[in-house]
Amino acid sequence: MSEKAIAKERDLILDVKNLNVRFETDDGIVRAVNGLDLQIERGHAIGLVGETGAGKTTTALALLRLVPDPPGVVECEKLELDGRDVLGMSIKELEKVRGKDISMIFQDPMTALNPVFTVGDQIAESIFLHENVSYVEAQKRAVAMLELVGIPGERAGEYPHQFSGGMKQRVVIAIALACHPQLLIADEPTTALDVTIQAQVLDLMKNLREQYKTSLIMITHDLGIVAEICDEVAVMYAGNVVEKGTLEDVFNRTKHPYTEGLFNSLPNIRDRKAMLTPIKGLMPDPTALPEGCPFSPRCPYAGDDCAAPQVIRSISETHFVRCCAYDRPGFHIERKER
User: Fold this and answer.
1) Is the model's pTM score more than 0.85?
2) 180 three-state secondary structure
3) How would you list the strands of the sheet with 183-187, edge to edge?
4) Please, are residues 226 and 233 in contact by the beta-carbon 8 Å criterion?
5) pLDDT in the model for residue 8
6) Does 254 have pLDDT greater than 90?
7) CA distance 91 to 188
8) φ, ψ for residue 164 (rounded to 5)?
9) In which element (H, E) is residue 226 found?
10) 253 φ, ψ to 5°?
11) What angle do CA 243, 247, 252 make, to 5 degrees?
12) Cβ 13 vs Cβ 184: under 8 Å
């Protein structure tokens, strides 16, 4: 069966193969994303998790073709959104796709909004550009979107500085969902919010995703958020996915040593006095990545075989891991009880 036939059978909204992103600077070449593969089925939500510097946000920007060039260089064998080649699109075609078919909630709601335009105008602009409606109708729909995210419609004429952080995030979500995109990328959407507002925003995103059948990429370092809102998990390290599977696969049948380290770093809810077990060392310098497995300098299971290029291994039909240790007879990792 051909790749296109498989994609159609699985109803993929996003199909990415061998994505590489590097930044060519005077100080050296920064290799931010390295051979990443990612597939998302229509209507599914996937959590992209990993430490700061893993390449999560750069991956999202590459999907939207927003990596600055220069110094950024994006290379990819395949980047298809709903079967359409994103790499082959012209700037005009991209402008029609961004905000309409694929939208992004950027990381900081405090800086994502333009301070000199009202929030209603900022939502209406997206609707007016992508939908065949008058600006008056776009403004009416903007008011409706505000109310949908829990903000009174009469506040459409106010400016971003008149809103709290949580309400600004709701406005950003309203803008991203105004044209009912097929794929929504949410980059750390709750980082700047307190716990109460964070829960409200997550509930809002879940409800809107169900209402519009939107596929979702949730970029986060918070495994709790992934457990609450996602169907699948892709764990990133040094610009590549090291483990991918369903929530059940990754949370209950963890295979990669890095994923094990992330879970072991979490507080023990059964023993509040238990010491945290952080992953030793730091993320590798992207200008000088180690040979073979980039996690090997921090990995408690590292061996001579880790110096070889790593390939993805299939654990089951839904569970994949990038770790050569599974070629060793009887190899397994130990997850602490939480």
Assistant:
1) yes
2) coil
3) 102-105, 183-187, 215-220, 45-49, 232-237, 240-246, 320-321, 313-314
4) yes
5) 52
6) yes
7) 27
8) -75, 170
9) helix 223-229
10) -130, 50
11) 80
12) no
